[in-house]
Amino acid sequence: MSFAGYTSFIEMPGAEQYFKSPLDRMSVDLSKKHPRLFKLFFDLMGLSKKNMPESYFKSLLKTMGDADTEIASAPGFKELFLTEEHEAFRQGSLGVTTDAAVHYVDWEFQLSEILFPIHIFHGTDDQLVPVDYARHLSEHVPESTLHILEGAGHFFPFREQKLIFDTIDDACGRGI
Q1: Residue 2's pLDDT is what?
Q2: How high is the pLDDT of residue 108?
Q3: Of 5, 6, 61, 137, which sits with the fewest C-beta atoms within 10 Å of its C-beta?
Q4: Whether pTM exceeds 0.70
Q5: Are 127 and 154 in contact (CB under 8 A)?
Q6: Which residue stretches of 1-157 are H helix?
């Protein structure tokens, strides 16, 4: 399963140009040419999350579309999100930095070598990870099934759990 995931930047030249945010486009270049500055970006993000969680959350919402803003306004979402972010930065920013950078490097295999079934879910209103990445994955992974969710954003798994679990049940031959 892939939920709002990336594709191989090696197999999709110019993939960074699909990012809506200029900062995201710049981060790809920074990760390759200036890894210390790239890490500093995540250091600052971690400090912001730790010392100004309300501002951190509000700044994220400014980058989101309507679908994600609606999900983020649900009771308990902000607390859950900030708890997950706290865990991500618990030991500093190195893990988060590495997780981001690994998207942009050679994965050392071709997508066409993935020979098992994969379901790819992506919302058309995802402002963080372009839906074009899901389409690219689907075109290059032979046994993939693409699920485009019209009007959904990056946080769609919080709302589409039934669809996700029904898909898993069907894929495992247990369609209930």
Answers
A1: 96
A2: 96
A3: 61
A4: yes
A5: yes
A6: 22-33, 35-51, 53-62, 66-72, 77-88, 94-101, 131-140
Residues 6 or more apart in contact with residue 62 via CB below 8 angstroms: none
Nearest to 4 by CA among 108, 74, 103: 103
Domain of 158, in residue numbers: 2-15+109-171
Cβ 114 vs Cβ 142: under 8 Å: yes
Half-sphere exposure of 100 (CA within 13 A, CB side): 25
For tokens 């954003």, the residue is: 153
State the average pLDDT over residues 37-44.
Answer: 94
Amino acid identity of residue 173, one-letter, is G
Kindly report, residue by residue over 139-149, the tens digit of the pLDDT.
Answer: 999 999 999 99
* Token reading at 2: 């892939």
CA distances from 60 to 5, 75, 109 (A): 18, 17, 33
Q: Six-digit token pair at 123?
A: 């919302």
Report the share of the chain in percent with pLDDT over 90: 92
Q: Contact 134/164 with Cβ under 8 angstroms?
A: no
In the listed set 101, 124, 150, which residue is the last one of a domain according to the structure?
Answer: 101
83 and 114 share one domain: no
